Amino acid sequence: MHSGPDTSRREKTVGLLLSHTAAKSLLSYECISDRLLIARFNCKHVKLTIVVCYAPTNSETRPGDTANKDAFYNQLDDVVSNIPKHDIQLVVGDMNAQLGDDVNTWKPALGCHDNIHKQTWNSPDGKTVNQIDHTLVNRKWRNSLKDVKVYRGADVGGDHNLAITTVRLSLAVLKQQKKQLKFNSSNLSNRDILASFNATIGGKFNILAELDDTSDINEEWANFTDTVNSAAREHLGYRKGKQEEWISSESRDLISRRKRAKPTLGSDYRELNRQTRASLRNDKKSWYSKIADDLESAARSNNMREVYQMKNILIGKTSRRASQIRDVNGNIIKDEAARLERWSEYFNGLLNADEPEETIDFTVFTQAEELNINMDPPVREEVDKALGLLKAKQSSRSRQHHSRNPKRWRRRH
User: Domain 2-167 in CATH: superfamily?
Assistant: First the structure.
């Protein structure tokens, strides 16, 4: 979600990128301006409200004129003051403000990391670095904010570094589940890998067929699964994180080179960033063109299953989006009970409308002339003519089906 001008480049906006789990927990969100976005989430023990902001800089205001800044901070103050007091309140974003180096005064804000893990912005000159991105939390939940750290290795082609905020609630201890690794079965499409994998596990299936009553089935099954898993680890490897299919190998190489050049932030990095963006745009354009060709080919062959598959790939998997429910005055309702009451009020007004003041006199309408329709039973010639027209309009898929089953078609007719 983003708040700001609806353009393809998404410039001068604030946004919030959610995981699938976070998207399901989203209760409401409001795009306040191109500098402010607020979202509320349903957590296990408490509600979480996040305010994403982008503060104006001195270069965006005239010397001595602070009206732009004052308007932004007044609006931010109004947004924060309307957040429910029992929520965890996080204000994150580019504040365009420095705190100084007074550790005694700003110790909670400056943190305990080295400077390289606190500097969030890199100047275009490649020399100046500052800490201007911050995370604010309300005092009630201050102990739940465990850490804020900058990770310089994350490269997104911008002058800001990735700052990760770790928030942990002390209300309950959740048992962490062990991450299950999956084998990369797509490598079996390679004939060489498939042959080596089959050679490694060859003959192991015969063990299951040679079992008798005296054999320990659990021991034999454990040996068999160990052999298959070891062969899969050796030849297939583990599946990596999901990667976009439309990104070409050339673009991935440019991304890797740009990432290695990021620490310098010199002319080489800017040139690689320009080449990477251009290559990604071309990759996405080519991918869309290929999907469109496949969809058109599937539609021509009347393969509706593939048509819907291509359509789902283009639009992505749809997920339930939180609706912004407003009252009669246009204000967003954040309380769940008030939302239900608003729905009841809406349907009562929709379904229990007042009776119309004027009634319609249907006697003024003249009766239509009766149509001369032959209601006699059809004759054989009319049936043959109708079947001929029906057969001429059949789809290519239906004609192929009838041609493969001519006896069945004649029997039915």
Answer: Endonuclease/exonuclease/phosphatase (3.60.10.10)
